[in-house]
Amino acid sequence: MTDYTSAINLICKHEGFNEKAYADPSTGGEPYTIGYGTQFYPDGSPVKRGHRCSKEKALEYLFHEVDVIDTQLSKLNIGISDSARQALISFIHSVGWDSFFYSSIVDNLEHEDLQEVTEEMTRWVFDVDHQVIGSLLDRRREETNLLLKDTDAFVQPCARLLLSAFRVYSGAQHEIQAIKHLEESLNPYVLSRFANEFRVSEKPWDTFRADEYDPDDFNTVFDR
């Protein structure tokens, strides 16, 4: 039996359990949701107003949904790690299959461009009024971290390149510009994690323009 532990844990954590069916916030009615984000029962019938379920039944419904999503993913013949698959299962359970399938994510997965995949995933944090949903920020962060968990094959060449760049860094203007461009292109979650692990000095970088960067500031940071 396929292990969906990571996907199930993510979904349960962020969906929460609801014993009683609740209405869609944007419509005030259908689609109704119950359990851990279930809107349709395994037989295909929709959740209705007033329906209730136990946690045991809610998990049964969720396992069925996850299995269906995994089957759909398998049909795409995309070469991804188990962690990436489970991250996508959680993401698809959140946004829906059609939203996922017709996004740019599938194309980027086929081209093994995980940077663009995570960039796209982190854009799905808004409600119907285009307001950021705080809980979705956390969910997308955990999903993208899980997606990148087993991607050593993709990051090792870049890691060697960056280590080489750090070793020969001299503070030249072209080096500063290259670092600036790299920073602008990085997923904010990946950049934040790097800053924390690298123990980057808490300097207010955004107060400087590219032509105002002092090489000594960079040397101070990288020499820590």
Note down, in words, how this protein is organized:
The chain is mainly alpha-helical and 224 residues long. The protein has two domains: 5-147, Lysozyme, CATH 1.10.530.40; 153-222, no CATH class. The chain is 57% helix and 4% strand. The chain is built from eleven helices and two strands; from the N terminus they run αββαααααααααα. The protein has helices at residues 5-15, 55-74, 82-95, 97-101, 105-110, 114-121, 134-147, 152-168, 173-185, 188-198, 215-222, and strands at 18-22, 33-35. A two-stranded antiparallel sheet has the order 1-2. Helix 1 (5-15) runs parallel beside helix 3, helix 2 (55-74) packs across helix 3 (82-95) and helix 3 (82-95) packs antiparallel against helix 7. The longest helix is centred in the first third of the chain and has 20 residues, at 55-74. The protein is elongated and about 65 Å long. The termini are far apart.
- Main sheet: strand order: 1-2
Q: Which class do the helix and strand fractions yield?
A: mainly alpha
Order of helices and strands: HEEHHHHHHHHHH
Overall pLDDT metric = 82
Instruction: State the total count of DSSP E strands.
Output: 2
CATH class category of the largest domain = Mainly Alpha
CATH architectural name of the largest domain: Orthogonal Bundle
- The rough form would be described as elongated
- Measured between the Cα atoms of the first and last residue, the distance is 48 Å
Low-confidence stretches: 153-157, 204-213, 217-224
